[in-house]
Design a protein that fits this description.
The protein is mainly alpha-helical. It has helices spanning about 1-20, 25-55, 60-85, 100-170; strands spanning about 90, 95-100. Helix 1 (about 1-20) packs across helix 2 (about 25-55), helix 2 packs across helix 4 (about 100-170) and helix 3 (about 60-85) packs across helix 4 (about 100-170).
Length: about 170
Amino acid sequence: WIRLVAFILLFVVVWLAFATAFSLPQAFLRAVIVFFIFSLVVGINLRWIIPAAFRHQKFWIYITISLFLSVILAVARLGLETLGDVTPNIAALGRRFPVQGIFFLMFLAQNLFVSLLSLTYFLLKRWIETTQRESLLKAEKLETELMLLKNQVNPHFLFNTLNNIYTLAYL
């Protein structure tokens, strides 16, 4: 529930940020494209790429696949935005020329940044789980040691009680 609200709020913020440079329909289209691409990057990273890289302890695989995925999705995003005719042109020296190469590099950098964020999320989540597991194991260890000590004390207590009763009966 909280994730859905946060996702919607983030989408609205991105939409409004695009609305300053584009018309509202174009800004909405850009926001949809950006969130779709970023969701793909995060989902594929967290579900398949990162766990496989950590399972096999081959981090170069993660870097290679993440770079390849980022390039493919940057090309897809550039194609989608060009298809929607929302890629702006820049006027330079009186001439207008498309800046798709610059946009490709920018999209690639954004995808790699989102990949890095998803890796950070994965590592943080894994560290929290490990810390919780360690604290649970420590608590179980202390509980086991306490039960062991109680079991060691109980026979001595019983022996001492019986010994006292024997001594009192003997007198």
